[in-house]
Design brief:
heterodimer; A: mainly alpha; 2 domains; 13 helices; B: about 280 residues; mainly alpha; 12 helices; about 0% strand
């Protein structure tokens, strides 16, 4: 390769890296804009905001609709993620360790909710939720969100189980531990980081989900995305931006926890 | 152990049978239960001009978003794959940060950015590129921009994994044989990353087909199939038609993933046949 060719490639390489760096930083702009408009005092959205006020945050804090929606979202998210995690761990154990029959089909079904458009599930779940008398209760949304959360703990735990040999578990069984003792003392400590990560992903999926909540909830079980959605369709105010900024801050803390907790856990 | 391993399926069976498999069965039967006779809903889907336009819009938007995501996502994955250590971590962190913000909030962000008096129009007007504000939200352009923004991380991750799995000796061997960097990329790296490009494109395309939030907020007059299903069920109470549309979306999803799987199997077989020649 000639010297000029080399130089040209090096220049192109630098240009590409710079461009990608700019794109990645540009990806943050939409989020920063939401935060920026939340601090203005006018009642319509203007950008750039030319004053600073916490007016919309005060209104957000005093808004009972948001309070109950946040509470609903937290309860639904935690319960759905817990159900999804239990089902995910148990299925992963069956598929990876126990060599249960039909593992290919069960794996496909356990991952399917991640790619199936939510509107399809919503249309089918609505009549079932009515028949079972769940419609309008928190359980309707919890169970639906447990289904869409299932793929995350299933995938993370499968990954953790394949990353180490089952000889440790066989050794434990040989030494006289029963299946449950082996799970509690050997398997679970090994897969704990994956379980935590899977739980948090499932929780986040529930916090973000709108379509199922739209079909399955009542005004009293309204979730946070649903409330934001209704407000956006009604009138766009900086209060929505303030609510969104608070949610962004909380989710950022959640991600930080998701990335740091498994690491801390490993160190112990 | 083998006999009792069935018990481990119990939780997932209790969850998926009533709340995933039964719903699919329900929409299947519901779609044939219309007053106009068996299969009438499907005939309507195929013949009704309005529904055909909606299906066309859905495919058009999904295809455009897939192409745009690939064009933006591939260079990102390529650069990230070559980074090492701290910079690689920072890059991946940056790509995932917006990924975690809720879809409603990200769509809302683009409603602000692309509004008639929003920052994008102000900047374009300010530098004199346009004379009248662009109506992003009416013509589907804003929708595609926002959806691409949401979908890029989904395509970066599989391509990044593919590029990282390429044996660095292969482009090196090409270099020894006299290929310049462009040739190394076009003849070695790009073809080897194609299976993962296919995975990324499939995920983005299928997810885009089912998008509801962003098209409702930024689509303007443009209707996509999820909005139509929701409207038929919620406002018009035409559950048989809504179910028929849902079944079509479901089948499309299955067919697209089956095609991806088949192409993966075919390329693996080809790969085996090829390595057999050298063995």
């Amino acid at each position: 390769m000639s010297v000029s060719e080399k130089r040209l490639w090096a220049a192109w390489s630098r240009f590409l890296t710079g461009l990608v760096g700019a794109i990645l930083i540009g990806f943050l702009v939409p989020i920063l804009v939401v935060v920026a408009v939340s601090f203005q005092s006018k009642s319509y959205l203007s950008f750039p905001p030319n004053d600073f006020s916490l007016r919309w945050y005060q209104q957000f804090i005093g808004n009972d609709d948001y309070r109950s929606a946040i509470l609903n979202s937290m309860m639904i998210g935690a319960s759905a993620a817990a159900l999804a995690t239990v089902a995910g761990i148990s299925t992963a154990l069956a598929v990876v360790r126990a060599g249960a029959p039909g593992s290919a089909i069960v794996s496909a079904l356990s991952i399917a909710p991640a790619v199936l458009p939510q509107i399809v599930l919503a249309i089918g779940l609505f009549p079932i939720s009515v028949w079972l008398g769940l419609q309008g209760t928190l359980w309707a949304v919890i169970l639906a969100h447990a289904v869409i959360g299932l793929p995350f703990p299933f995938i993370t735990v499968c990954g953790a189980l394949t990353s180490y040999s089952n000889r440790i578990e066989i050794a434990s069984m040989t030494l006289g531990a029963n299946a449950f003792q082996t799970f509690r003392l050997i398997t679970f400590p090994m897969i704990r980081p994956a379980v935590i990560a899977g739980f948090i992903f499932a929780f986040a999926a529930s916090l973000d989900e709108l379509v199922l909540a739209l079909f399955l909830s009542s005004p009293s079980t309204r979730t946070l995305p649903l409330l934001l959605w209704e407000q956006l369709n009604f009138q766009v105010t900086p209060e929505i931006a303030a609510a969104a900024s608070v949610i962004l801050a909380v989710t950022s803390l959640l991600i930080l926890a998701a990335t740091l907790l498994p690491r801390l856990d490993k160190d112990n | 152990m083998k006999q009792r391993s069935f018990l481990l399926y119990l939780p997932v069976a209790l969850l998926l049978t009533p709340f995933f498999l039964a719903p699919m069965a329900v929409i299947g039967t519901e779609s044939f239960s219309g007053q106009h006779g068996i299969g009438a809903e499907y005939v309507k889907v195929v013949t009704d001009q309005g529904i055909r336009t909606v299906l066309y819009n859905t495919f058009y938007v999904a295809a455009m978003v897939t192409i745009l995501s690939l064009l933006i996502g591939y260079p990102i994955a390529y650069v990230l794959a070559r980074l090492r250590g701290r910079w690689a971590t920072i890059g991946i962190f940056l790509i995932f940060l917006p990924f975690w913000a809720s879809t409603v909030i990200r769509s809302f962000a683009w409603m602000i950015l692309l509004g008639r008096k929003g920052p994008v129009n102000s900047i374009l007007l300010g530098i004199g590129l346009i004379e009248d504000p662009i109506r992003f939200i009416d013509n589907g352009l804003g929708l595609m921009i926002a959806m691409t923004y949401i979908m890029v991380p989904f395509i970066v991750v599989p391509i990044l994994n593919g590029l990282r799995a390429i044996d660095p000796n292969l482009p090196r061997a090409a270099a020894v044989l006299g290929a310049n960097p462009w040739r190394q990329f076009l003849a070695v790296t790009l073809p080897l990353s194609m299976p993962n490009v296919a995975v990324g494109c499939t995920i983005v395309f299928v997810t885009s087909l089912g998008f509801f939030v962003t098209p409702s907020l930024l689509g303007g007059d443009l209707t996509v199939v999820s909005m139509l299903i929701s409207e038929q069920a919620n406002r018009l109470l035409d559950w048989p038609l809504a179910s028929a549309l849902a079944i079509i979306v479901l089948l499309l999803t299955i067919v697209i993933f089956a095609l991806l799987r088949l192409s993966q199997l075919a390329s693996r077989r080809r790969g085996k046949a090829r390595s057999g020649v050298f063995a």
